[in-house]
Write a structure and sequence with these properties.
The protein has helices at about 10-20, 35-45, 60-70, 95-125, 135, 145-165, 195-205, 220-230, and strands spanning about 1-5, 25-30, 50, 75-80, 125-130, 170-175, 240. The chain is α/β, with parallel strands linked by helices. The longest helix has 29 residues, at about 95-125.
Length: about 250
């Protein structure tokens, strides 16, 4: 399998890229942070490709996907892992924050997919897009409204791609609480949050039982993504949810 993982410089994207490589896939990793990207490629092995890409820039997406396709000899699977979640009440969000959320969570996915569609169509391949339980399976969490709204838009984007391109598999992968791996593989979703603001919202999330205390083993997520991509368009997998088993 020839796989392209976008957002592979850290967190779940990095974990998935390394995991796919260990399962025999030829992998191209795409992200903005070049040094981290090279580190991910080295962790996968000498055959991995590191291709710089700004998912919010159409020209960068086209160039990166073409380089990846040329290096891999085609593309069978695409993973879109980037996601940002600004922490603030809706009334406090400015236009720039809204734009940033949609540029990364929605527009980036659209641009990368558009660039990859010819290659995925030729291979009857598949694409997987990461989302979270907080955005897809529960009411919007207080403080994460912009994230939830943008991920809802991503859900419809994936559905629209599926309708317009039936020769490609499109799957939304909903992920429960997961810490990722060690070092650069750790989740950075909350890294930019203001500690005081986080202290305001965490008790609300706990009170509403959004936080169970259980964490998903990232290897379980990797196995699911690997299976989705290897199915290509031969199976219809609109969405799949991977969450940790609740504590007994």
């Amino acid at each position: 399998m020839r796989a392209v993982v976008v957002g592979a410089s850290s967190g779940l994207g990095r974990c998935i890229a390394i995991g796919l490589g260990r399962r025999g896939a030829n992998v191209a990793v795409l992200a903005r942070r070049h040094e981290r990207l090279v580190d991910t490629a080295q962790a996968i092995g000498p055959a991995a490709l590191a291709v710089p890409c700004d998912a919010t820039d159409p020209a960068s997406c086209r160039e990166a996907i073409e380089k990846a396709a040329a290096g891999l000899g085609g593309i069978d699977g695409l993973v879109y892992a980037p996601g940002i979640g600004p922490l603030a009440r809706l009334v406090d969000l400015d236009a720039a924050t809204w734009r940033a959320a949609f540029e990364t969570n929605v527009i980036g996915a659209a641009l990368v997919t558009a660039a990859a569609i010819p290659h995925l169509t030729a291979s009857n391949g598949a694409a997987a897009y990461l989302s979270t339980v907080s955005a897809s399976l529960t009411p919007p969490w207080p403080g994460l409204g912009a994230y939830a709204v943008s991920k809802a838009a991503l859900d419809k984007l994936v559905e629209a791609w599926r309708i317009e391109h039936p020769r490609v598999g499109f799957t939304r992968v909903v992920v429960g609480d997961c810490a990722g791996g060690e070092g650069h593989s750790a989740i950075e979703f909350a890294k930019s949050w203001d500690p005081a603001r986080a202290a305001e919202f965490l008790p609300l999330w706990a009170e509403r039982k959004y936080l169970t205390g259980a964490l998903l083993d990232v290897e379980d997520l990797v196995r699911v993504v690997d299976t989705v991509l290897r199915c290509g368009s031969s199976a219809s997998i609109p969405s799949v949810t991977v969450t940790p088993r609740p504590p007994a």
